[in-house]
Structures are given as structure tokens and as C-alpha cells.
Write a structure and sequence with these properties.
Peroxisomal Thiolase, Chain A, domain 1, 4-stranded mixed beta sheet, alpha/beta, 13 strands, 5-stranded mixed beta sheet, 10 helices, single chain
Length: 339
Amino acid sequence: MTPPLPSSPRGVRIAGTGHYLPSNVISNKDLERWMDTSDEWIVQRTGIRERRRIDRDKGETTTSISVAALSRALDNAGLKPTDLDMLIVATVSMEMTCPSTSCRVAEAIGAGACGAVDLSAACCGFVYATNFAHELVKGGAYRTVGVVGVDVLTPLMDYCTEGRGTAILFGDAAGAAVYTATSDPSKGILAQAMHSDGHGWKHLYIPREPRDFPEDADPNRRKLGLMYMNGREVYKFAVTKFQDLIAQTLDKAGLRAEDIDQFVCHQSNARILEAARERFGIPHEKFYTNIERVGNTSAGSVPVCLDELRRSGRIHDGQKILLVAFGGGLTWASSLWQL
């Protein structure tokens, strides 16, 4: 473990990123064979053409793809696993509640006795965890914190006509970032926000017991261990909160949309993304999307985009970037960085 920097002045930098996408692809044509839908219908309503699915025969799990993403992030940062002081894994698809996914990932990569904890905030998980990691480093308690955003949701999908409203959306992925202390206090979060509305829980949930279903759930469609989503209500929530969240975060920082070099947004639905882009007049080159080829990967969404942008050179030191996400809970969160 590396020695801590002096407590003041101290900034936080994104030292490295990485991601992992399973090679197994589910295309819209595949879905046409499994349920009453069409490629045209899916693309028109979501912008998605394909999504990824883990291959259990190859040993792919939530833990294994997290290990792959974090290993790539550490390599990108030029750090060793033992340099990590803390690991946060954001997921709703842990293989077990005990032990935590983070403990298993830390052991698998050889991180030694670093702290490890799971965080559950659905699609907002990586952004929540990033805000927590920043404060752990900024406050001086830790020097290097790893964050993984990962979800394996395809096993929770009902690939039949009754489940098509959800199954067309979700795919599997993991993304990771490593945050480290720097002596430049100008680097780090300029503004952030984290919110929730538990009243809307029943619009997106994964029941484990019969009592987990809301009272008005269709008694003929009560299957445990699957994801249920009220698409209409989630869409209305997302369209409003997504745009309000961007405005709130910019206002906190005293900035305008044109001051941001790159918007790194949760990839939920192409129409939701486009509505926000148009409202703020953001040019396409500052508003990255990959939903067409990976779908909605929940907590993996924002870090996968972040890594793809960094590796392509579209995100680099000196820029201002805004991470934004919303998801089940209901939750919504942002993280505005000076790189």
C-alpha cells in the first residue's frame, strides 16, 4: 500500500479506467425469434440493435467480468492491485449477498487486505460510488480507491412475449475506474447530486419472495427472480429527472452546458438521451452514446462509456466532464469533474 499524500492541499484524479463486454451478442433478430417483436420496433423505441450476454460455460459471472474491468483499469493507471486502499463494487446482480462481490473481486485480483464493499443503487450505482470514492480520497482517509460498476441482467430477463418490454433493453457489462490523490487541488468533483424516491420502487424491481410483489401486480405474471419494469412510468420519470439533474448540477457549479467538454450519461433509451441533448443544445460530439451496440447495462453503463471515451482520446486532463445516471429505487445522481 502506498503512503498517503499530505492531507492538504489534495485533489482527486481519474488515474485509469477499464471495461469488459461479453463476446456473446443478442441481436434484435435473435429477439424476433423468441418473442413477438421486430428490429424496427425496438430501434424506433429504444435505439438498441444488440446487447451482450455472459457465457456461463466460459465461467463469466458478475465477479469475473468485474475482475476483468478492474484489472484493465489498474493497468491503465499503471498501478498494482495492492495499491488499492478501498474497492467499491456497484451492482444489483451480485451472485450472493454474502460474501460481497467486492470481497471476491479484491481476492481474485490480489488486492490484499484493502477495504471492500458493495453498493446497490441500480443504474446509478457507479455514479453514487464515484462520489463516495472521491470523498474518501479528498478527505485524506485513502489515497487510491477502485470503483466497479457491473450488472449481469440477462439471467433476470423473461425472453418471451410477456417480458419483451424489459428483455429488449438490458445487457451485461462491467466498467471500472481508479481514483487517486493528487497534489493539485483543482482536480476532482466540482458539483454532485444524489437523490432517491422510494415511492416509485414498484416501477422497477426484482422480487425474491412472493411478498415482494406490489399488491396490484398481475397474479398471472408473478415469477420470482425476474426483473419487472413499468416502462411507461420509468420513461416519464427518466425524461424529467434526467434533464432536471443536469440543470441542477450545472447550477451548483455555476456553469453552463457549453462549459462541459463531455457528457457521460447512463444509456437507458436513445429517445431520453436525445431529448436531454436537444434541451441543452449539446452538440453530438459532446454527448456520447453506445446504446445501439450494448443496450442498457445498468451500473456498467456510465463506466463503459467513460472508458471508451478516455481510450479514444475524447476525454483527457484539463476537461470538465459530467457523469449522469438514473435508475431503480428510484434513484438519480450526477458527478461533475474537473480532470
